[in-house]
Specification:
By secondary structure, the protein is an alpha/beta fold. Helix content is 32%, strand content 24%. The protein has a 9-stranded mixed β-sheet with strand order 3-2-1-4-5-6-7-8-9. The longest helix has 27 residues.
Length: 181
């Protein structure tokens, strides 16, 4: 009596199955190499400087500390100053990812509207607010609870009408509303 696995049809089927299995393993291994470890990209990117507790740190766009940074001023690097007082280490999260996204959204919106940022004071712990001081002296108040993109046309309109320079502050902390004095 012949064994069932000795027939040419069974052997061809086993070889084909082995080839497919090897191919599946190779593709799976390749996919593991293609995907970077979670958070690896965020930790390596230096998007802004975060100052807190007397020290400054480079942070990523996701709100993670990447490295220590010098205390900077001027308009070349965005500097966020936190009201909290703690020491941070590499990989620590200074703000939640959605709040970090909104902080960078505010900075990019101001750059598009041709406003120079002087300082951004951040309180994400209690009030989730950002106080932006412009180099021209105006003070803008934003919230990190929602997107602040609605403020862009308001800022452009006030600037175009020449009303912007006479204001003490503009408050955008209520969604889709602006208050000014």
């Amino acid at each position: 009596m012949r064994e069932w696995y000795g027939s040419p049809i069974v052997r061809a089927g086993l070889v084909t199955l082995g080839v497919f299995f090897a191919l599946a393993v190779a593709l799976y291994a390749r996919s593991l190499k293609a995907v970077p470890p979670r958070g690896a990209e965020e930790v390596s990117a230096r998007a802004a400087v975060w100052c807190e507790g007397g020290s400054c740190y480079w942070i990523s766009r996701g709100g993670l500390v990447t490295d220590t940074a010098p205390d900077t001023d001027g308009g070349l690097v965005t500097v966020f100053t936190s009201i909290r007082d703690r020491s941070l280490r590499q990989g620590a999260r200074v703000v939640r990812a959605e709040e970090a996204e909104r902080l960078f959204e505010i900075v990019e919106m101001l750059a598009r509207a041709k406003f120079r940022l002087s300082e951004a004071r951040v309180d994400t712990e209690r009030s989730r607010e950002v106080i932006v001081l412009l180099s021209s002296g105006e003070r803008l108040l934003f919230s990190t609870r929602f997107s602040s993109l609605f403020a862009e046309p308001i800022l452009e309109a006030l600037s175009a009408q020449g009303l912007f320079s006479g204001l003490r502050y503009i408050d955008f902390r209520s969604e889709n509303r602006a208050y000014y004095q």
